[in-house]
Design goal:
Blueprint (H helix, E strand, L loop, with lengths): L59 E5 L3 E2 L5 E2 L2 E8 L9 E5 L26 E2 L4 E2 L4 E5 L14 E2 L4 E2 L9 H14 L7 E5 L1 H12 L6 E5 L7 H15 L16 H15 L2 H7 L18 H14 L4 H13 L9 H5 L5 E7 L7 H13 L4 E6 L7 H4 L5 H11 L3
Parallel strand pairs: 5-8, 5-11, 6-7, 11-12, 12-13, 13-14
Antiparallel strand pairs: 1-4, 2-3, 4-8, 9-10
Helix pairs in contact: 1-2, 3-4, 3-7, 4-6
């Protein structure tokens, strides 16, 4: 890569988590991040922030006066979906890519909303001119899932029957329901077929659902760090997170006031989740056994750096995410099973006929590689066109955010083949 010196591009660790959020005020040892595409490299400011190459972007909202029938049999409507788009749709509408976000992500995947924004969208490293999802070539769409709290209909939205927030009257949402709502958006944009659906973690689940249930609407899918169904351990971790919220008296069985959320419970729940996104090697690299310089080692309430980091991450999360949405989306993750509604896994995957590109990461203990490989083995047994790469990385479930340079060239090659380049 001519003219690029990777050591000069190293940045302070941002504390990225699986939704791409960054804790820019927390300083610790660096994690390198460098995205390649066809010899391009991207510039970082002296403060360590990469300048987005997209113009100012805007989150759009579209209302659907429909009642969506959910997997539970309940009806949800009317619906609002928040979304952003990047690039231009070509004449035959064949260059559209849907980006599906993870658990606590949002529609703001790239660019900045205004010149004062301290940081760009959560996947800005991937989306933009000359980047992996090249907006000079592709029309990229990212929508906020229903059940969330960033503009799409969720527990904090007003229930049209009562005029008050749904809170726990909101129905349980499955990942498949999220995809049904996304299909409404794609219809609204008058796109018949997507070039690909790509996403990490919960986004990988959505990509897989698109490929199985709407095969005529997608040419390919790219699931990253996903699973066909979470393990009992993953469910157990979410159970701990739920209990942390339930035991906070401010939760009030979901009827808390927005200005007085169950902050202690949600912060602890987030810390539990955040641990699952990391790994033992990444924690050692980032924190080691360093004791906080702010505390005395023999102070009873003194903290290690990892403790202080988890506390900071949890507290900052409270300011940006709704507690009930956190609970509903955690339930969606736990309930996810690609074979739901089918007699067996083989039947479910028999419907996946499009090209697919899969990635798993060696140190991911939340959705470990064997879970992706179970799906790949069945697809290969059925003669399906599935390409799989196991990426060696020490950064746990967060590897797909921290070391994208290890796998994104494969995405570029895959999309080039689909586009006939």
């Amino acid at each position: 890569m001519p003219g690029a010196k990777s050591n000069s591009l190293a940045r302070n660790a941002s504390g990225e988590d699986e939704d791409g959020a960054r804790d820019t005020n927390f300083s610790c040892i660096c994690w390198p991040l460098l995205i390649f595409r066809e010899g391009a490299f991207f510039v970082f400011t002296e403060a360590g922030h990469k300048m987005s190459e997209l113009d100012i972007v805007k989150t759009e909202h579209v209302d659907f006066n429909v009642e969506l029938r959910l997997e539970s049999g309940r009806l949800l409507g009317p619906l609002t979906i928040a979304y952003e788009t990047y690039g231009e749709l070509n004449g035959d509408k064949s260059n559209a890519i849907l980006v599906a976000h993870a658990w606590t992500g949002d529609a703001h995947a790239a660019g900045r909303h205004n010149s004062e924004d301290r940081k760009p969208g959560w996947w800005d490293d991937m989306i933009g001119p000359g980047k992996v999802l090249d907006t000079d070539r592709y029309f990229v769409i990212c929508s906020n899932v229903i059940g969330s709290c960033f503009g799409s209909t969720g527990p904090a939205s007003n229930n049209p029957r009562t005029g008050k927030p749904y809170n726990l009257q909101f129905p349980v949402i499955m990942v498949r329901d999220m995809v049904r709502a996304q299909q409404l958006l794609i219809d609204h944009l008058k796109i018949d077929q997507l070039l690909t659906v790509i996403g990490g973690s919960m986004g990988a689940m959505q990509a897989l659902e698109w490929g199985i249930h709407y095969p005529e609407r997608v040419r390919s899918i790219i699931p990253i760090a996903g699973t066909g169904r979470p393990s009992p351990m993953a469910i157990a971790l979410n159970a701990l997170a739920r209990q942390a919220i339930y035991n906070d008296p401010m939760w009030r069985k979901g009827n808390y006031r927005p200005e007085h959320p169950p902050a202690d419970g949600l912060a602890l729940a987030r810390a539990v989740g955040h641990i699952s996104f990391l790994s033992d090697p990444s924690m050692n690299l980032k924190f080691g056994r360093r004791f906080s310089a702010r505390d005395g080692q023999y102070d009873f309430f003194g903290q290690f750096e990892i403790e202080r980091y988890l506390s900071y991450n949890g507290r900052s999360f409270v300011d940006r995410f709704d507690t009930n949405s956190f609970l509903y989306l955690a339930k969606s993750l736990d309930l996810y099973d690609v074979a739901w509604g089918f007699d067996e896994l083989e039947e479910a995957l028999s419907n996946l006929n499009c090209q697919s590109l899969w990635f798993a990461f060696t140190s991911d203990w939340l959705y470990p590689p064997y879970q992706t490989e179970e799906l790949i083995n069945e697809l290969h047994k059925q003669g399906k066109p599935a390409e799989y790469h196991l990426i060696d990385s020490d950064y746990g479930h967060d590897s797909f955010l921290v070391e994208p340079e290890k796998f994104t060239p494969k995405i570029v090659e895959f999309l080039d083949r689909l586009s006939g380049r």
